[in-house]
């Protein structure tokens, strides 16, 4: 049996590339996003009463990897990429139907210039991700205090520290569009977004990532991140 799924909206996220996206939602609470509804669902009736809920489940499509197929066995990052698990025993992106789920915080509902949107935080989705469904998060049903979580039974923790150069500090302080930008960058880097094999290298490593409209360059030396520069993304 085959069926089609119609997107109901699209995420406008600070994460412009897969690199540096947190492994799970709400690990970086400063990550704010907007879910903009598609034309067929761009009516306030579809979300009437949604403000009564503090959190939502988003069901979405891994749109950048869905066409790359799937594998029965995958290497979870939490295991350092060294051990294989069944894809249905993980939250890996390479899935038979390319469907993901994310529990995020609802910050508000916006209806501006005829466009309906949900304001969200704690997001872990790539910019442009198509949303296929929204469901209220129900604490009495969805939060199971006695649940076992296998190899991912605790929140991921690192000992990574973060410091900023004078240029980076000055740039962040001069912009006023994103008041939580420094905290956002700090918490993204504390998650240590590097691939597992990079974390084993002893030499100083340099990286770059795009968040919101900015390019961030930093170095990693052991367990220390040093943000070298924050700048506007150059238009090609």
From TrEMBL:
GO terms for biological process: methylation. The keyword Methyltransferase applies. The keyword Ribonucleoprotein does not apply. InterPro entries: TrmO-like_N, TrmO_C, UPF0066_cons_site, YaeB-like, YaeB-like_sf, YaeB_N_sf. Keywords: Methyltransferase, S-adenosyl-L-methionine, Transferase. Residues 5-146 form the TsaA-like domain. PROSITE patterns: TSAA_1, TSAA_2. Pfam families: TrmO_C, TrmO_N. One of its GO terms (molecular function) is tRNA (L-threonylcarbamoyladenosine(37)-C2) methyltransferase activity. Belongs to the tRNA methyltransferase O family. This is tRNA (Adenine(37)-N6)-methyltransferase. The lineage of its organism: Bacteria, Pseudomonadati, Pseudomonadota, Gammaproteobacteria, Alteromonadales.
